[in-house]
Every structure is written in structure tokens, then in C-alpha cells.
């Protein structure tokens, strides 16, 4: 390519390059020619060379060597060179580079130039890349231009003032007097800039709200003029008069009317007029109506106006544009708690959005549908949600099951309906439910004594049909072990009776034990159920003994331990087997032993798949027999000493403390400290283990809000000399109302024994809003110290 070609020719040659290497060669040759042109001084070609360099920069190649040339061209007296110089400054310079300070004086001189186009170049550059120092130096010049008679300059000066306020908020007072006077302008560009400037002033300096609330009647008149004005080709967009200005005015009215009755009353009539007269068939009209709805909901508006706003959002739900449907449901989600009855009128349309092909629309429709569930519509809404669960994308299943469980627990019309609903969910999406679902359902079944026969029959049929859903299989095994005698009787009024033999039940449990799909926990449930059936059947006890003995050498330690203990019950303590394996008592949900999935307490819920411990009534057996049982658990032959009447703190004089079957019921207190509490999320830190060079802590997140927290993630950073290891979290969804927790273990290896500090970034979503925050932990809880937390 010959040297010093025109810009158009260079673009044509670069685009015709067939390979990346050929393109790089062309760029390198052209850059070398541009450098040569810069070194030759003022030869009339510098602006053309810089223009070509800017195109090279747009392609992603280095162009920093043109920065000083930008400074030289800005100082030129020729408009053509000055224009390219300012364009280059906006593209190649930023506020962090020292070269940007060199153009401050040139900008100041050009702001006083007699040509409006030169002034415009300086204003655009300052608004684009002006640093805080430049803004402080040039703010008086901008304030002077706000009072200029030229609308073209005044429009650009207002937007430049907005940039200065964002960079240096303390300069806001300088522009406050001029901003109010700009509202009297007739030029739409100046008006738009003035509204943006006043909005920025109100957001950065709430003290100016009272001053600008006096301008509400003026803003209302401007807005009415836009709504009722005749067709104007200059400002018309799809039949709407200047929708950009309307949106900006509505946004400013929302700020001025927030928590202020006087300002809200002044704009109520206007908002009703906009809501009824604006055509929503075009995108521009929908944008104006959406801002109108947000303004109505954020100010102290009348109840009838709020109903009108909800109806507008309901019409948005029928729009073919998915983006409009999405923002409509996002807005309804925010107001469903305060205007529940008004939103309920659009329940059918919202439920229909669950069938949308777009996943984001489905997610919003799901969250809104769950928020609309009440005691009145629980049956119809749950029917729709269960249909959606069978077809919803995998990424929504966990959220759907969690919402269904919460709604069923809160509004269930009967225990049978509650059990049927949970079983339906487990059958459809058993692999996507929370960990506490199994113990919660078991607790519910135990309290519904009149439904034991119905439940065990239904669960047995589900188990025979499908063993892939682990949560369902665990509950089914537990019920068969507890209520197997009811299953074998075959007498059930609530469901069609099916004759089940002992061999059928044992075959089903053996299938679970032998299946490769069964997890270790599920096998534990099945083995315990098999053992419990030994006291509920009569003809197949030897088969049960054979099944249990097989797992005495299982590679899984938990399963092996259970099998060994159960074998011992068969061989050495057969006379006590019936008492040890009798039915579990009714579990009280609010008892200390049952936490409903809340693991914050120090007493954990017993594993329902294990047989209950020996009760006090069993101690009436001969002392030698009881010692034999204790020998099974402890491996000691120390005889049992006579004990007094039962008290709240039973003790023995035995050195082996034989009665302490659980190894001590008084755990060492573990200190937990709250390090973060905002937007319904509470994050606590607990020190599990501490040595001289290693600390193991657990971060515990709970949710006190009314909606589930989703996408919950934690990120941690420590000093370079400390090694950080974060274990996998227990989940990413925290149930509402404190019904569950998410935990994550963090191991800190500190070989240099430096002072431990950790910074945690918390990220989560609540009601569609994404929250992210950071906290600093300067010390960790121990037995003798407290946590020092400094929010960032």
C-alpha cells in the first residue's frame, strides 16, 4: 500500500485483507507512516493521520502514540484540526492519564470562543472524559454557559454540568440556582437537559428536594403540554410527543413526590391523564406508561390510581413483546405485597406466562405465581404449579419445589392434601428438593395418625414404580419400616386396597439396597426399614436376618455399622429387639429435637432412618440384660449400679459412664457472630476448629424475608501469606421466614501465624433484585474473643 493514502482507501485495503496476519502487516505499515507524519510537524496532514489512527484504535490495535498529537491539534486555530483533536482526546485519553491535564487550558479558552461549534467541542470533551480536577477548574465556566442565550450551547452545558456533579458532588450547589430557571425554556433539548440536571441534583443532594418540589406545578404543566399537544414532526416518535422528555419528567416527579403528600396531590390528575390517554400499542407509548406506573407506585397516590397502574401492568402481560411482559411481572412482583387484591385480578394471565418459551419470563411468572398463592386459591394455584413443575427447565426445578413446599405448609386445607402434594412433587422432581424435605415430610406423616395406612400404601406403590427419586425412596422406606403391618393387612378405606405379601415388601426393599441409583443414605433407610419389619412380620424373619448379615462387610462404613449392630440384636439381644424396634413416637415440629431444617441450634434432628434409642421404660429389665445392651454399644463389662428415681440429670457412679449412650448430651458451646444483616439476609460465622496454624470456620446464611433468597454465593479473599480453601456450599437457595439455612465451610491455613483477616463478598437475589455487598472480618470467634466486623 503506498504511503500517505486517504482514510477511505486505508479502510478499503484493511477490509480486503484475507488473513489476520495480512491485516496486521497493513496496520503496522500504516502506523509507521502515521508516526513519520507526526514527526514532520505542521505539514497540513496531521489531522488526516490522526483520523486514520483513530480507525486503527477502533479495530483494537495500540494507538497511544497519538495522545500528544491530540493535545497539539486541540490547540490549533483551525476548526478541522481542532475537531479531530477533540475526537481523538475523547477516544485515546481518560481521566487517569497525565496527558489529559494538558488540555485543560485549551478547553477553558474554547469555552469562551465566539463560535458555538468550538464551544460545543469543548463541552462534549469535558462531559466525556473530564477528571475531577478538570471539573473543579472549569465548573464556573459551565455555570456561566448555563445562562447563555444560545439554546444549542445551553443544552450541551446542562449535560456537562451533570457530568461535573457525578464527578464532584460537592459542586452541586453551584448549579442549583441555574437549574430551576432552565425549566422555562421552550427548546426541548434544553428542557431535557434541565430535567436530567435537576434529577441528578436531587439524587446527590437530598437537601435540594424541598427547593425543587416548588417546581412540581411547572413540571406538571410541561407534561400536560406534551400529552395534549398536536402532531409535531420534530418531536413525534410513533405517535407520542417526545417520549424521551416525558419519561425524564415522570422520573423526576417520582423523586419529588416520594413520601410527600403535597407534591403527590399536585401530580395525581396528571398521572391519571397520562395513564388513560397514552397509546400502549407502540414501544414508545409502553415506555411512557411504564414510567407512569412506577411513579404512581412510588408516590403517595390515591388507591384508585394504584388500581389503574396495576391494570396497565396487566395489559402489558398480554403484549407480544417478551421484554414488556418481563418488566410488567417484575413491577407486579414489587407491589404484590401492598396491592395483593389488585394483582390477584390478573392471576390467570400471570399463570399463562408460565407456558412462555423464554426462561427469564418463566422465572418471573413463577415468582409472581408463588406470591399470589393464598388460602382461597391454594388448590387451583397448586394444580397449575404442579403442571408447570412437570415441564419446567431444570434450572427452575429447585426454586419451584421450594415455593410449592412453602405454600403447601402455609395454606394447606388438610393434612391429606398436604401429603399428596408433597408426594406428587417428590415423584416428579425428587432430585431437586431441599435436604430438609425428607425429615419434614416424615414429621408431617407421624402427626397424621389417621392417614398412616393411606400414606404407606401410596408410598409403596410409588416405590415399586420408580426408585430413581432418592427423596421419595427414603420417605417410602421409612414409612414401610414404621407402618409395614398396616401395608400387609391390605385394609385401607382411603385408597383402593392391594394385597401385598411379606415377600413383595422385602423384594422392594432389597431392590433399593442393590440398586446402583441408591445413595448411601437411601440404603441406610432401606436397611433400617428391613430391620424394623422383623418385628412386624412373622414368616420371613430368617430372610431379614440374611439380608442384614450381608451388609456387615459393606464397604460403606455407615451401612456396615448399622448391619453389625442389627446382627447383634438378632444374635445376642433378640429378647430386646421388639422393644428397640417399636414405632417411633409422634414428632413435635417445635420440639428441641426437630428443627424443620434449621441447623442453627446446637441439638440436631435425629436421623429418622435409625431406630429410636432405648427409652426409660426399658430400664425395668434385669440389670444384666441392660448391661448386655450397653455392652453392645460401648464394649465394656462394668456392671450397672442401682440408680435412683429418674431426674432431669441422671448420673451413675460407673467410671465408664455407661448411661451416656450418646457420648455426652452437653455439647461444648460454639460461639457464632453475625457479620452481615441486610435485605433479609443474615450471615453468621462460626469457628469449628482452631489450631496454631489452621482455622476452620463455617459461614451460615439465613433468610428472614418473605421470599426465598436465590443465587446465594459467597466469595472470600485473605492475605497472600494465608492459604484459603472454600468447601462446596450446602445450596444456593435460602428459604424464607427462617425455614432453612445455607452453610459453607472455609479452611484457613496460616503457616506464618500472621494476623488473620478475611474479606467476604455476598451476592444474592431477592424478589428479582440482585444484591451484592462486601464485609471485612478482622478477627474470628473463639471461646475468649469476639468478631470484629467492618462493613465496606
TrEMBL record:
Span of domain GAE: 668-781
Entry annotated with the keyword Ion transport: no
Compartment annotation: Cytoplasmic vesicle membrane; Endomembrane system; Golgi apparatus
Protein's name in the database: AP-1 complex subunit gamma
InterPro entries: Adaptor_Complx_Large_Subunit (IPR050840), AP1_complex_gsu (IPR017107), ARM-like (IPR011989), ARM-type_fold (IPR016024), Clathrin/coatomer_adapt-like_N (IPR002553), Clathrin_a/b/g-adaptin_app_Ig (IPR008152), Clathrin_app_Ig-like_sf (IPR013041), GAE_dom (IPR008153)
Highest taxon of source: Eukaryota
Biased composition (Basic and acidic residues): 601-613
Any one GO cellular component localisation term in the record: AP-1 adaptor complex
Homology family: Belongs to the adaptor complexes large subunit family.
Keyword flag Protein transport: yes
Record keywords, A-Z: Cytoplasmic vesicle, Golgi apparatus, Membrane, Protein transport, Transport
UniProt membrane topology term: Peripheral membrane protein
Organism annotation: Cyprinus carpio carpio
Broad class of where this protein is predominantly found: membrane
GO biological process: intracellular protein transport; vesicle-mediated transport
Region: Disordered, residue numbers: 585-616, 633-654
